Amino acid sequence: MSKKVIQVVAAAIKKNGKYFCAQRPEGKSLGGLWEFPGGKLESGESPEEALVREIQEEFASVIQILSYINEASYDYDFGTVIMKTYEAELLSGELTLLEHQNSTWLAPSELHQLNWAPVDRPAVDLLSKK
Fold this sequence. Notes:
Blueprint (H helix, E strand, L loop, with lengths): L4 E11 L2 E6 L10 E2 L2 E3 L6 H13 L2 E15 L2 E14 L9 E5 L14 H7 L3
Parallel strand pairs: 1-6
Antiparallel strand pairs: 1-2, 1-4, 2-3, 2-7, 5-6
């Protein structure tokens, strides 16, 4: 049986030279791991539209997408996640944690200090070289 393929998007939100990192809640899939926030694409949405919507839903904030970073995939036990990551900036809101248990802002050189979800690691590698 083939695994389910899940298309997701993520935002590396940058402010004052640092990136916003969010920790997934314990008890949920990939609980305790860190990620660039985002979520699943819904039918008919572009990746950019999905990302703006997800950040609004999960953090009560509005972002503007600046540039495309990468696409990565990872085979989890629940399916294959294919993730497009974009660099973004905060337009409004305070990135209130509605679904995550913790967050931090890190400089590119500090990103490797966290235990990242596997699909996020290629973007972390690219951004840590900036």
